[in-house]
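This follows on from our talk about sequence and fold. I would like you to pick a protein and set down its sequence and fold. Go ahead and set the record down below:
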Amino acid sequence: THALSDLRKITIDRRSGEIIVGGRNVVLKLNSKFESIAEFALGPKLSSKNCRPFEIMSCPNATILNNTVSILEFLPELNQTLVCGTLEYGNCSLLAESELKPLAHDEQKNYLGSDQGSIFVPFNITNKAVYFTYFTGTSWDGRNTMDEEFSFKTLLKTKFLYKTALSKKGLCSEKRKDFNLKFLYGFQDEKHVYALYLMNRSDHGRNYFETKISKICKEDKYFGSFQELILSCDMHNIATAAYYSYNKDLYVAFGTGNQSLGAKPSSIVCKYSADEIRRRFDSSFIMCYSDINKKGYTPPRWSSCNSPNICRESPKVNLVYLV
């Protein structure tokens, strides 16, 4: 327990078996008996969404705010833990044995945390422990400057780098206001990485509040294989938690919401098999894209301000649900 923090994220240090948990303003290291062996303060800190981290001391509207852990992930290739908070534009740090080392504050690619949700999926496509790529999703939270919502990155010393040319998928500022994303969960299979997120979509004066799942080939440098589906279950449309099991089933907890992306008390847990989701993605490819011969390199309609309205409606997935 921690008297001054609500703990929200957890990861395991595979070298030592130590448990690392993070929440509001703090990261804790626990031993196998759940005894606290180290504590690292993240806040409160002086911050503003109008100023980047290295500008904060001269920022006119900066205030003292709580810093909540948005990403907490053990990186086996570095034997360190990545910690990203919600302040300082989500700038990340590396937790070593006894200290928390911030990454470069002037690198926008290091800003992965968000108070609207972030995901971080490490994967190794060469089966070599020294070669890792990270699929990241960072929700726009009102800050002045923003890295792309979806991207593939690697980590070199104190900064993240894009893995391949054009390995980003972003929303222009106009679309970002209409198509607000809140990342919830990320996972992978042998060939793809997936993101689960909430989306506020405005269309012809009407607001739609949806849960979506996206799929992209690992290290697709043009994001041309990007696809998305609407997820819902028994009239429940707002996902609140998710877990991808070792037997390749996706479990999602849902609430309901028709006024915002926040979920109302009614809830349900749904089970989605990997085979069924794959079939639905294959079907959506045929339904959605204008020219199958392009092999998926037609972008979804919300990928940029100028892309044509190709997909008029995303197919819904309603599968087995548990009550």
